[in-house]
Amino acid sequence: MGTTYTSEINPKKVTTRRLFDMKKKGIKISCLTAYDALIAKIVDDAGVDLILVGDSLGNIVQGHDTTLPVTLEETIYHTKAVMRGVRRALVVADMPFMSYQVSAEEAFRNAGRIMKETGCHAVKLEGGKLVTEAIARLNEAGIPVMGHLGLTPQSINKFGSYKARGTNEVEAEKIFADAHSLQEAGAFAIVLEKIPAELGKKVTESLEIPTIGIGAGPNCDGQILVYTDMLGLTVDFHPRFVRRYANLHDEMIKAISEYVDDVQIGSFPSHDESY
User: Fold this and answer.
1) Torsion angles phi and psi, residue 122, rounded to 5
2) What is the mean pLDDT of residues 160-188?
3) How confident is the model at residue 7 (pLDDT cuts 50, 70, 90)?
4) Is residue 239 reached through a cis peptide bond, with omega within 30 degrees of 0 on the bond before it?
5) Would you tell me the crossing angle of helices 169-185 and 197-206 to the nearest 10 degrees?
6) Inter-axis angle of helices 132-140 and 104-118, to 10 degrees?
7) For 193-240, what is each residue's pLDDT tens digit?
8) Is residue 203 within 8 Å of 228, Cβ to Cβ?
């Protein structure tokens, strides 16, 4: 049996250094999203290594079609909430669209606000070679940065779809080169989203820093999912890379329907539930 890093067995705080050590030892890194204190505490108690306050909050929490409307203020608000629920996991905040693309200095100011006002441990930004100046600037100032390559949701209007990336030789070579550029700029890890498994394996084996896959095959150093997808809370989203570990949507509908019925027929509250 391999070494595990669950909250019960080893409650020691997860750090960027620890993720690097886990890669060296071949210990897989588990990651999930969270957007509030309650879910963050549950995820943390379950032993997840890294919690991402993703800009997917635009879809999951706010009901938008894309991640683009999420603001810096909203990211700070949700990250502060998540931090109140976390004891062990490394917490990474997504930098929202247009909070880092204008210049390295603006990226530094915005990332600094996120870190200072939330107390989170790192930020994540999307893109390849074009964002390396920003990564280097943040890294110099002591702000850990996670990269993100492959399918980059903030670029949806550029690509026009959420189809897999790196499926042709030119694009695959660019993703591979960009991964090395991010590492050289100082990124501590890279999310690889929706790329061929073979490319995920090639990138992972060539880097010293960990890769976190989402639809990038089993050979990445870790995996991440949106928690509402893996718990079956979202019912209209069925990508190949999501494994549903529960069907909470139906369970919640059932429970709430029973509550409605009990209220309507007057069986709730009972005598024992009253003062």
Assistant:
1) -170, 170
2) 93
3) very low
4) no
5) 30
6) 50
7) 999 999 999 999 999 999 999 999 999 999 999 999 999 999 888 889
8) no
CA proximity to 50, closest of 9, 79, 92: 92
- Give me the half-sphere count of Cα atoms (radius 13 Å) on the Cβ side of residue 130: 11
Beta carbons within 10 angstroms of residue 245's beta carbon:
11
The question of whether 193 is a catalytic residue gets the answer yes
Amino acid letter, 125: L
Among 105, 117, 173, 193, the one annotated catalytic = 193
141-159 in b/e form (b: 16+ CB < 10 A) is eebbbbbbbbbbbbebeee
CATH superfamily for domain 16-244? Phosphoenolpyruvate-binding domains (3.20.20.60)
Res 160 pLDDT > 80: no
> How long a stretch of residues is the chain?
275
Q: Which residues contact 43 (CB under 8 A, 6 or more apart)?
A: 32, 34, 51, 89, 227
Question: What value does the mean pLDDT of the chain take?
Answer: 94
Could you tell me which of 181, 182, 179 has the C-alpha nearest to residue 201?
A: 179
Tell me how far CA of residue 213 lies from CA of 19, 155, 189, 192, in angstroms.
Answer: 14, 18, 11, 5
Which run of H or of E encompasses 32?
strand 29-33
Q: Where in the chain are the domains?
A: 16-244, 249-275
